[in-house]
């Protein structure tokens, strides 16, 4: 039930939903004062969420920074899914979060980890035949990663299940912590909290950064549709982190 609610309620926390909702309210109401306030609120929200400066400052403060790796070799890199998808026939493809795959591949091929665990099944409400981690295994095999080094967790639908199911597999494989946790920088804060609740010791290995650490630029004050889209990732993470904290 929690999984279904999280998917259904997601639309109500997205910035664009707020902008449109206040705009529609302004068009519907008859009272001039209320109409004006709704228009102003809609315009203000659009300005805030389309402002690159505000987005970049928040993202840089929210993102988890890389942690120095002190051990020569770690037992496993846990790569969280969400970086690929599939069609109705189960054929897979990489998406914009594919840096998770790249960094996991880098860790295993350079010998920084002895095993790589791909955690991800299908997170859609109406899942088809595609299972992300099973497909990703075929991609690793094509790149000559030995089967003995690949662990597949193909049942999880969200990060909570990623952590729970991965913990079981790691125990079965007798792989000792700490593990390197590979996921997008915007997703790392919530992921660390969830793995901590599972009492699984992990070291953050963030990737897929949506903003650079570049110095301040006047271009950041030019409104853009890109921050409006990217805010959706962060608002989802902030709400999810709060829910996980109080759950």
Given the C-alpha coordinates, what overall shape results?
A: elongated
Number of strands: 7
User: What is the CA-based Rg, rounded?
Assistant: 20 Å
What letter string, H or E per element, gives the SSE order? HHHHEEEHEHEHEHEH
Instruction: Enumerate the spans where pLDDT stays under 50 for 5 or more consecutive residues.
Output: none
Overview of this protein structure:
With 247 residues, this protein is α/β, with parallel strands linked by helices. It has helices spanning 2-8, 15-28, 32-49, 52-62, 99-109, 132-142, 159-172, 185-197, 225-246; strands at 77-80, 84-86, 92-94, 116-119, 150-153, 179-184, 202-207. The strands form 2 sheets. The chain has a 5-stranded parallel beta sheet with strand order 5-4-1-6-7, sandwiched between helices. It has a two-stranded antiparallel ribbon with strand order 2-3. Helix 8 (185-197) runs parallel beside helix 9 (225-246). The longest helix is centred in the last third of the chain and has 22 residues, at 225-246. The radius of gyration is 20 Å and the shape is elongated.
């Amino acid at each position: 039930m929690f999984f279904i609610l999280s998917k259904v309620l997601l639309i109500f926390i997205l910035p664009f939903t707020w902008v449109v909702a206040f705009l529609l309210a302004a068009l519907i109401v008859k009272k001039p004062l209320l109409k004006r306030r709704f228009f102003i609120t809609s315009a203000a929200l659009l300005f805030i969420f389309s402002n690159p400066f505000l987005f970049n400052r928040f993202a840089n403060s929210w993102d988890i920074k890389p942690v120095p790796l002190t051990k020569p070799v770690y037992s496993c890199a846990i790569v969280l899914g969400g970086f690929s998808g599939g069609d109705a026939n189960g054929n897979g493809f990489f998406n914009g979060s594919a840096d998770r795959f790249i960094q996991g591949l880098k860790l295993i091929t350079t010998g920084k980890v002895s095993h790589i665990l791909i955690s991800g099944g299908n997170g859609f409400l109406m899942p088809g035949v595609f299972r992300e981690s099973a497909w990703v295994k075929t991609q690793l095999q094509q790149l000559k990663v030995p089967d003995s080094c690949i662990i597949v967790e193909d049942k999880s639908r969200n990060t909570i299940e990623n952590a729970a199911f991965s913990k079981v597999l790691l125990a079965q494989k007798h792989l000792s912590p700490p593990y390197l946790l590979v996921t997008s920088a915007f997703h790392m804060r919530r992921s660390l909290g969830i793995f901590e609740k599972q009492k699984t010791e992990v070291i953050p290995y963030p990737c897929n950064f949506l903003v650079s650490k570049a110095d301040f630029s006047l271009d950041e004050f030019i409104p853009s549709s890109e921050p409006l889209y990217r805010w959706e990732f962060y608002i989802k993470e902030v709400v999810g982190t709060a829910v996980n904290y109080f759950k």
